[in-house]
Write a structure and sequence with these properties.
The protein is α+β, with helices and mostly antiparallel strands. Helix 3 packs across helix 20 and helix 15 packs across helix 19.
């Protein structure tokens, strides 16, 4: 009855003699939701502007029950803070609608005078889970964005006026998370952004090596950073194939960039080709050798298990080792249903992993302190050098039966951003400090030219209103920073990063494809210490001319040791291993051309990827959902998953939505969420 009466009042509301303010549609509101209010000024108003919601026939502020917010506009002395708006009269506001709301109208007042009234609003309702803080609302342990309720944690007048899109945004780092952030800002009409990049190129850890000064179209390359994208998993029992949903964000980005660059240089188009992850004749880790002394391949060892080492002979207690292995498998419980769950929604899979204590233990801790196995049995089952949590998303990735990579190199993806960012990126700009100014609520970034003398080089400063910081935390530890919260400060100082080294080598011909047992793409491992993973090119199979392969890929402490070797010594060690694996042909075909990259020694990264140890993942994630000193932290180290391109992309979307909500651009935040997160998150 009350709703009907209110509707009746609204329909018969008297028209205003003159509307100094016009409300712009759409005239729909979601109960217990957040949205923007957009207005237009029909005259130059000065004074305290208040906006309220209630019965459509209300004539005074006292008759309107729901006060939305107020601020000073125009020539009023307190309106100076709105200098970014024309005439200091903001036109965009934030409305936090109450849960109990009926159909009504918006009203604008200057002082006690009614200066504008909207059309009648239609109300929609949706079940919404109430939580106490943004970190809980955004749920860093699982589905990160269940609703745009962030602003409900702040004072209504503090967040009432949305920021103008003329604010200046700094993006620290031109890796893939920084690049996507720039694209997102541009897509919602924010054009005053600038990237500060310490190196001379785009892409960060997306780094393709084109050997011997070749061009991408020469196909003499391999990846020194990420190599591939897991695409789909085949369930042999059901004969079903299902997609790995999170990776679709990569392909979506490529589609957007291709459309954006359709009238640009065709070389900027991002095209995907199949990546061969496993092949029949790729070498395997065994001490056994063929009669000619070379390393046997995958299919050979499957047909002749005697070519494999018998691990049982090395165990001190075979029964205990197998029981411990089974205990880990039981705890992880990667059933076909759970594998599908991980592939469908990595966010909710993460939440489940937290709830089931998967992130509370490393494999070592679980076997030692939960199952009670001694240190020796534990170390035979899983390396005691590792203390990572049992967050099994990567195990699921490597169940993929289909993989993709980017034609002509993974660096083609960041290069596709170049038309957008080229003239708004400051390359070779090495930031070393950020200062927040309380009086102006702005930030000053201090930098020096990369490679310049730290003793004599002049410091360059640049001011921003807001910052997206994608720089790895291990580099931030040496910066001058604002006094972040204790949790954020500890995350910066203590998050663990891994190291890795990759070596690509060029040969006169693709000899591996012409061996007695041809190796057609794929990755393998050998028992030659310090070689790790070897990957053969998936492109231009059986083509003539030179060929390039990834001859070594190792991480962690092994990478530290390898990178401490003189480069020539390391390359010689790897080349001798290539001869042992493939035979003398590897020496005959060796060109002497190679590319080696030690990520831990890279001044722009100081590591390969984040490896938060127990309990860092669930401890520090909530800190990244808090905006401190107008700064949002992005990058793969702030994501649910780590070391994959998706991790960095997800962080950019989350960070952009977070920032847009902070500055009151709610409609834009929803637009970004719909565009990038709709496959998981329904707002």
């Amino acid at each position: 009855m009350a709703a009907a009466a209110l509707a009746s009042h609204c329909v018969h509301a008297e028209p205003l003699p003159r509307q100094h303010i016009s409300f712009q549609g759409p005239f729909a509101v979601e109960a217990d939701g957040i949205q923007n209010i957009n207005i237009a000024y029909n005259s130059d108003l000065d004074g305290e502007l208040a906006i309220a919601y209630g019965e459509c026939n209300a004539a005074s502020r006292l008759q309107v029950a729901h006060h939305i917010g107020s601020t000073h506009v125009g020539e009023h002395p307190s309106a100076k803070r709105h200098v970014g708006w024309e005439g200091s009269r903001p036109t965009k506001f934030v409305w936090r609608a109450p849960a109990r709301i009926e159909s009504g109208c918006l009203h604008a007042f200057v002082g006690d005078e009614l200066v504008g009234r909207s059309k009648q609003f239609q109300v929609s309702r949706r079940q919404r889970k109430k939580r106490a803080t943004f970190a809980e609302i955004s749920d860093p342990m699982g589905p990160w964005f269940d609703g745009v309720e962030y602003l409900k944690q702040k004072n209504s007048n503090e967040t009432f006026v949305a920021a103008t899109k003329e604010k200046k945004f700094g993006i620290l780092g031109g890796g893939i998370s920084g690049l996507l952030t720039a694209l997102i800002l541009e897509s919602v009409g924010i054009h005053h952004w600038k990237i500060l990049e310490s190196s001379d190129r785009l892409g960060g850890r997306m780094h393709t090596a084109y050997l011997n000064k070749s061009r991408p179209e020469d196909y003499q390359y391999h990846e020194l950073g990420p190599m591939r994208f897991p695409y789909s998993i085949h369930d042999a029992e059901t004969n079903e194939t299902f997609a790995i949903e999170d990776q679709k964000m990569v392909f979506q980005l490529a589609d957007i960039l291709n459309e954006m660059n359709k009238n640009e240089d065709p070389a900027l188009q991002v095209n995907f080709i199949d990546w061969i992850q496993t092949s029949d004749n790729a070498p395997v880790a065994t001490s056994q050798r063929r009669k000619d002394g070379t390393v046997p391949g995958r299919m050979e060892t499957r047909l002749n298990p005697e070519l494999l080492d018998n691990a049982n002979l090395t165990y001190s207690n075979t029964t205990a080792v197998y029981e411990a292995m089974a205990a880990l498998d039981d705890f992880k419980a990667l059933t076909p249903e759970r594998v599908r769950f991980y592939a469908k929604d990595v966010f909710r899979a993460h939440k489940e992993a937290v709830e089931q204590s998967m992130l509370d233990f490393s494999e070592v801790e679980y076997l030692r302190h939960v199952m009670g196995y001694d240190a020796n049995i534990t170390d035979q089952v899983t390396s005691t050098a590792v203390s990572w949590p049992m967050w099994e998303f990567e195990t699921v990735y490597f169940m993929a039966n289909k993989w993709l990579t980017i034609d002509k190199g993974m660096s083609r993806l960041p290069e596709a951003f170049r038309p957008l960012v080229q003239n708004r990126t400051s390359f070779n700009t090495k930031v070393f400090g950020i200062k927040h100014h309380k009086d102006s609520n702005s930030l000053t970034v201090s930098s020096r030219p990369t490679g310049s003398s730290p003793w004599t080089a002049d410091t360059t400063t640049e001011d921003f209103d807001y910052i997206f910081n994608s720089v790895p935390f291990n580099l931030l530890r040496f910066w001058d920073l604002p006094p972040y919260s204790s949790l954020m400060k500890r995350a910066i100082e203590r998050t663990v990063f891994d190291g890795a080294v990759k070596v690509a080598m060029q040969y006169k011909e693709r000899f591996w494809e012409h061996l007695e047992r041809p190796i057609i793409g794929g990755c393998g491992r050998v028992d030659v210490y310090g070689i790790g993973q070897i990957c053969y090119p998936s492109y231009k199979i059986n083509s003539s001319g030179p060929g390039t392969m990834l001859t070594s890929y190792i991480s962690s402490s092994d990478a530290v040791v390898a990178c401490s070797m003189p480069e020539e010594e390391h390359i010689a060690y790897i080349q001798r291993a290539m001869v042992e694996i493939h035979g003398p042909i590897a020496d005959e075909m060796w060109t002497g051309n190679y590319a080696r990259h030690c990520w831990e020694q890279d001044e722009h990264h100081a590591g390969s990827w984040a490896v938060p140890i127990v309990p860092q993942q669930q401890l520090y994630l909530p800190a990244f959902w808090q905006t401190e000193f107008n700064t949002v932290f992005i990058g793969e180290h702030t994501s649910y998953t780590h070391s994959w391109v998706f991790s960095a992309l997800e962080s950019a979307v989350r960070g952009s939505v977070q920032m847009l909500l902070d500055i009151g651009l709610v409609d834009e935040a929803k637009e970004v969420n719909r565009r990038w997160m709709a496959r998981w998150i329904n707002l």
